[in-house]
Structure prediction request, 190 residues.
Amino acid sequence: MKISKNCIYCGKEFVAHRLTTKYCSPDCNKKHYKIRIKKGEISESQQNEKAIKESIYKQQYLLNNKAHLSIKETCELLGLSRSTIYRLIKDQKLKVLKIGARIIIHRSDIEDMIKSHSKTYIPDQVENIKANFNINNYYYIGEIINLYGISEKGLYSLLINHLVDKVQIGSYTYVLKTDIKKLLGNPENL
Prediction:
């Protein structure tokens, strides 16, 4: 995007690449900045910025110390959208108190909801596999592809069709060597 503008400092016409560009060159920018410092414009903007930061800090302090929160404050505290908060209320995962049309949420109820959602159930089968996992008994998917010269898509379709268990650890998938040897034979024979 190219926009024709006039420099704020020297008044010369120039082509800007952005809507926010105000100066035709870095020199004009520097010279105008020095003038603005002398006039006191820069210190005013810095004071305004400081006042905004203090206001945000005060707001955050009040939010962290309130016992009862509105929907908006709950959104800010948890970093969730309004629709997510309303869904939690509808699913009765978050308790609320209604006073007229206003909804109030106790901080303790928010903390209880978070504690109840932080525990996830891990099946015993997964725990057993991870406890007894020995990498020497498994092939990594990339190893199988290299050893047997099979495509990744073909390998996954074989594993799915024969109901072969896969172990996912991080971003890596492993399959028992014995299962692969039953399906594809020994790699030494190829």
